[in-house]
Amino acid sequence: MSSQNHDRTKNNIIPPDHYNLPVENNGENKSCQYSSNAELAALSTNDLIAYLKSTSDYECHAVILFDYESEYSPLIFTNEKIEAVADEIANLAADYDGTFANGLYGLLCYIHVAQYFSFYNSSTISINANSLTAIEIATDVLCINPALFDLNEEAPVILEEFLIVLDFAGLRHRTATINLIKQIMANMVIYDTWKTSPDISWVTGYWRIYFLMFRGCANNDIDYLTAIANDSDFIELWGSACTDLEIMENPDISHLYQNNAITEMARIATKTGFADLVCPHLYEVSMLFERLHVNWIRAVLAINDAGQCVQYDLCENEEELRGE
User: Fold this and answer.
1) CA-to-CA distance for 280 and 277, rounded, in angstroms?
2) With bands split at pLDDT 50, 70 and 90, how would you rate the model's confidence at 10?
3) Sign of CA dihedral 165, 167, 170, 173
4) Which residues, listed in sequence order, are joined to residue 10 by a DSSP beta bridge?
5) How many whole angstroms separate alpha carbon 168 and alpha carbon 200?
6) pLDDT at residue 126, as a whole number
7) Which of 45, 130, 187, 276 has the smallest C-beta neighbourhood within 10 Å, fewest atoms?
8) Phi and psi at residue 150, in whole multiples of 5°?
9) Domain contains 97
10) Are 134 and 170 in contact (CB under 8 A)?
11) pLDDT tens, 133-171?
């Protein structure tokens, strides 16, 4: 059975991301060295790593790997192989140059699929303590490489895949992960590095932080919630992302980046300990957008749900707002 057919939740937990796979073709129609799970399962650990590094074509590795086959997938995702792939990521991370050149992309895709299967197919594929430690070490090293933010065609693709890997219990709350998210927000609202990009291809990498923030909140990841609640810089940068005027005036960016920043801040407002942290920023959002604008509604309803409408003079009834 293909993993693409799985339910969207399991035990009320939002699962790791699958991928929007190309519909028109798959690995068997590409000029890939290997085109089936059977072939990949037959590879030694070293040969599997070499193959993952050899191609940046998503359809030559991830598309094949995501198609779970009970006979072969558990042989591809043993903990020996997961740990070895993570170790190789750690070895390559410091020298990553913002391109596909050193093979990092295929290795990250493999870890992504391993995480997905460890959620949906945990009886046959699981990530043990040694593998998780190896992944933690690898991601910590890669998080501090500034080439992740290069504004070329390849770096945003790798950044997006890396953020999908980081969007996993045990990784979201790590200091390196939190600092990476803060750097992305700072690039947007302080350093304005996005202005130097010839196009908006970088957005797909940058906005992936909001998927992580969504799951961290919706899945009640206590370690993650505690980490950001205790990081005032994180909250301030997040608030700035919600209210940055230059982003607001650029519709190509604001609809993905700013709107999602506001949506996730509204979502977290009712979590224990967050109302006092985020409602001041949500109030600024309410002052920035016109009444009944979707972002105004999100901010105002969140303030009401958090029990802070009186102090901001923003008490509103949701049903009445719908009537307007």
Assistant:
1) 7
2) low
3) positive
4) 13
5) 26
6) 97
7) 276
8) -60, 145
9) yes
10) no
11) 999 999 999 999 999 999 898 999 999 999 999 999 999
Q: How confident is the model at residue 29 (pLDDT cuts 50, 70, 90)?
A: low
The pLDDT tens digits of the residues spanning 261-285 come to 999 999 999 999 999 999 999 999 9
87-94 long-range contacts (CB < 8 A, ≥24 apart) are 87/134, 87/138, 88/49, 88/53, 89/138, 89/139, 89/141, 89/142, 90/134, 90/137, 90/138, 90/141, 90/142, 93/138, 93/141, 93/142, 93/145, 94/141, 94/145
pLDDT of residue 2: 35
On whether residue 107 sits in a domain, the answer given is: yes
> Which amino acid type is present at position 169?
A
CA distances for 136 relative to 108, 152, 203, angstroms? 13, 27, 25
Q: Check residue 200 and report its DSSP letter.
A: S
Q: In the numeric block, which tokens belong to residue 4? A: 């693409």
Compute the average pLDDT of residues 36-40. Answer: 97
Closest CA to 3 of 104, 105, 125: 125
CB neighbours of 224 closer than 8 A, spacing ≥ 6?
172, 173, 216
**Is 237 domain-assigned?**
no
What would the two tokens of residue 257 be?
């980046």
The whole-model pTM stands at: 0.92
> What pLDDT score does 16 carry?
83
Q: Per the domain annotation, does 252 fall within a domain?
A: no
Confidence of residue 11 (pLDDT cuts 50, 70, 90): low
Structural domains in the chain (count): 1
- Name the residue range of residue 104's domain: 1-171
